[in-house]
Write a structure and sequence with these properties.
about 210 residues, 4 strands, 9 helices, Glutaredoxin
Length: about 210
């Protein structure tokens, strides 16, 4: 039970290369405005080839993936967002490193908003170090410090995120974990809100801004 002056930690597992993570990102951030919660953003990598097969092969069955992107674009259109399917399967690791680095310097949301928007407009190569450093520079972070982080702490910190996901039995993104209960998918946010309301965590007055 959360006391009246406490905030509940809500975990949000995400990937920048997941269109549904992009769709869930802003509503997730809004939870801190409407409820007494603190979002914890945790990167989680889904093995696309293991989940959907080798989509780069000419004879690959892409029907399910095509449908998922169709749904993502339907959701996006309702919110005025743009989602263009990527031209290949991208590794999210470097962008994750950037997110963890930005998180440590209180610039996570500014960084992530840019990464999501530009990647899904096909304007960002998330595997390009210069591109990731460029976004970090836009939010006031130093590229040289980021490179030092990548060469020292980044791999271990990301691995700990993946291990925590295993402990939480996460299998896909976006996933919310609320008081030990999992909610998978951007369209499960209403259920997250109902659970938080049932726990008595709705704020009496909505905040106007959330902390990065």
């Amino acid at each position: 039970m959360v006391s009246a002056n406490q905030e509940l930690e809500v975990k949000f597992y995400f990937a920048y290369t997941s269109p549904f993570s992009y769709l869930a990102f802003e509503p997730a951030c809004d939870l801190e405005l409407t409820h007494r919660v603190k979002l914890r953003f945790i990167p989680y990598g889904v093995n696309i080839r293991k989940t959907y097969g080798d989509l780069d092969r000419p004879d690959a069955d892409r029907r399910k993936v095509r449908y998922l992107y169709l749904d993502a674009r339907r959701f996006a259109k309702e919110r005025g967002l743009v989602i263009y399917p990527p031209r290949k399967i991208f590794s999210c690791r470097l962008a994750f490193y950037g997110g963890l680095f930005a998180l440590a310097h209180n610039r996570f949301r500014e960084y992530s908003k840019r990464v999501f928007e530009r990647f899904w407009r096909q304007e960002l190569d998330v595997e390009n170090p210069d591109a990731i450093e460029g976004i970090l520079a836009e939010v006031g972070l130093d590229g040289q410090d980021f490179r030092a982080y990548v060469n020292t702490k980044a791999r271990d910190e990301l691995e700990r995120c993946f291990q925590e996901a295993e402990q939480d039995q996460v299998f896909g993104v976006p996933t919310f974990v609320v008081d030990g209960e999992l909610f998978w998918g951007n369209d499960r946010i209403d259920w997250v809100i109902k659970k938080l309301d049932a726990m008595g965590l709705r704020r009496t007055e909505k905040l106007t801004d959330a902390v990065s």
